[in-house]
TrEMBL record:
Residues 24-433 form the Amino acid permease/ SLC12A domain. Residues 482-500 have a biased composition (Low complexity). This is APC family permease. It comes from Streptomyces tanashiensis. The keyword Membrane applies. InterPro entries: AA-permease/SLC12A_dom, APC_superfamily.
Length: 512
């Protein structure tokens, strides 16, 4: 673990995060308990007993994406994550545009969830006979998450580890109760047959399933703080996507068994929000349902903290790039956290939450769904661009990676993700429950931000050419100050290169 000398500014706490730590951040961002109890019943309602396959197919698609993504992670050491990968493969204008989409995506995914925190807490309190308004809960959550991000990254990893074990544990308890009792009519895998999977509702299930994985790719954001990042990051990425895909499918299947394949769809239609609670009450006990209510709140808090940490590191990187104000890049001298970025993100969240509250908006139907939806679409667009960037990047450098990793897998992932984005946008009304006008605005927001980013890129090239030329450059060494960039060539640096080595001209992958 590196420590700053008295003459140098503090940096992030390097060499801190293990594979397990990063996996906790990523899986916590997906909020497994909230996704299962809150969203999976709708997937069952739309897709029937074949719904578990939707989660498996989404997990398989993202595993294919991870092949090229993690291969490229061994060659790109910039802390800019998605936008750095896209820049190295598709050029600076697209990379700068992607950086703005990333800020929209991660902020949208986090800020909207404060509405879920308020509504879930109010619902839990009501179930226990108390009346708790949502707004004070959401504002208290903002302060709590700010403090979690203000503290050191290893503190956050420990908190998320505990919360993640708790929320997955209650789902395992539910599944265990159903399996031990044999379900409603005995255990069956009939729902996995093609006749139940190849239905009209499968497309809608896939849209929900892809949304359930949002944020899994954020492993690379923690590169500077990871132990042995060339190994830790790929392992954490595969662990996260494999765990989520298999766990989601298994839990949905057990809930189907709990009600019976002939009755679960009607049960989901009658009370989608209570489906999981009814199942755990029947197979485990009423106490477990009460505990599940409480753990949904902690699941939401874990998701908020994971996204908050990811946003702070994106903001830090863009500040170091010179795209955002330099003040946002300050690191706390003791906690080694990007605390100014965290304070700014918390202030932005508070403004959005208060604006929705003053407008009389519903915390779930509007604050959560309307803010989350463009965030989700933005992150899926980033995945699409990153998949396309992989073969473009490897086509321009000397490397020893196989064609399966550098061409076949990323191209397949690009096609699959394009289809996934099409499914999500086609079924966006299922996510938002909003009017056509509102849905059009929500779907158009991420592409509009991308176009705005292209304009910003061309303005930077004209007015601040040094900042533009330095964007997404490689650090000289792992964990080095990003203000001292690697040569702008996308080729891997020769072992003999030193910081004083002259930089070659920009390569085609970083061309204007």
């Amino acid at each position: 673990m590196s420590s700053p000398t008295p003459d140098e500014p503090p940096g992030l706490r390097t060499g801190t995060l293990t594979t397990a730590d990063i996996s906790f951040f990523v899986v916590s961002a997906a909020a497994p308990l909230t996704v299962m109890a809150g969203v999976a019943p709708v997937a069952i309602l739309l897709g029937g007993i074949g719904a578990p396959v939707g989660y498996l197919l989404a997990g398989l698609t993202l595993t294919v994406f991870a092949v090229g993504f993690t291969t490229m992670s061994r060659h790109v050491r910039s802390a800019g994550a998605f936008y750095a990968y896209i820049t190295r493969g598709l050029g600076r204008p697209v990379g700068i545009a992607a950086a703005l989409v990333a800020m929209l995506g991660y902020n949208g995914m986090e800020i909207g969830v404060y509405g879920l925190l308020g509504s879930a807490t109010s619902d839990t309190a009501a179930a226990l006979g108390h009346d708790v308004p949502w707004l004070p809960v959401s504002l208290a959550g903002l302060l709590l998450i700010w403090y979690g991000g203000y503290r050191s990254i290893d503190f956050g990893a420990k908190v998320l580890g505990v919360l993640l074990v708790a929320e997955t544990g209650i789902l395992v308890l539910l599944a265990g109760g159903v399996l031990l009792d044999g379900g409603a009519h005995g255990l069956s895998i009939g729902g996995l047959a093609p006749a139940h999977v190849l239905t009209g509702g499968t497309a809608a299930v896939l849209a929900f399933a892809f949304a359930a994985f949002t944020g899994f790719e954020s492993t690379v954001i923690y590169r500077r703080e990871a132990k042995d990042p060339d190994r830790t990051i790929p392992r954490a990425t595969y662990i996260a996507v494999a765990f989520l895909g298999l766990f989601y499918a298994f839990v949905v299947w057990t809930v189907i068994q709990a009600f019976g394949e002939d009755k679960v769809v009607q049960a989901a239609a009658d009370d989608p929000g209570g489906l999981f609670f009814a199942a755990i009450t029947t197979y485990v006990g009423a106490w477990a349902a009460d505990l599940m209510h409480l753990l949904i709140i902690t699941s939401v808090l874990a998701s908020l903290l994971a996204f908050h940490n990811a946003i702070n590191r994106y903001t830090l990187s863009l500040s170091e790039e010179g795209v955002l104000p330099k003040a946002l890049g300050r690191i706390h001298p003791r906690h080694r956290s990007p605390y100014v970025a965290g304070a700014a993100q918390t202030a932005l969240g508070a403004l959005v939450v208060l604006a929705f509250a003053l407008a009389g908006a519903d915390p779930y139907q509007q604050l959560l769904l309307w803010v989350n939806t463009p965030g989700m679409i933005g992150l899926m667009i980033l995945q699409l661009l990153a998949a396309l960037a992989v073969p473009c990047f490897f086509r321009r450098i000397d490397h020893h990676e196989g064609v399966l990793r550098t061409v076949v897998a990323p191209v397949a992932a690009f096609l699959l993700l394009a289809g996934a984005i099409g499914l999500v946008t086609a079924h966006v009304d299922l996510f938002t429950g909003a009017s056509t006008t509102v849905n059009t605005v929500l779907v158009s927001l991420a592409p509009a931000v991308f176009l705005l980013g292209l304009l910003l890129a061309y303005r930077l090239r004209r007015t601040r050419p040094e900042t533009y030329a330095r964007f997404a450059a490689e650090p000289v060494t792992e964990g080095a100050d990003p203000s001292c960039p690697h040569p702008t060539s996308s080729s891997s640096t020769p072992a003999s290169a030193t910081p004083s080595s002259p930089a070659p001209p920009p390569s085609p992958s970083m061309a204007d």
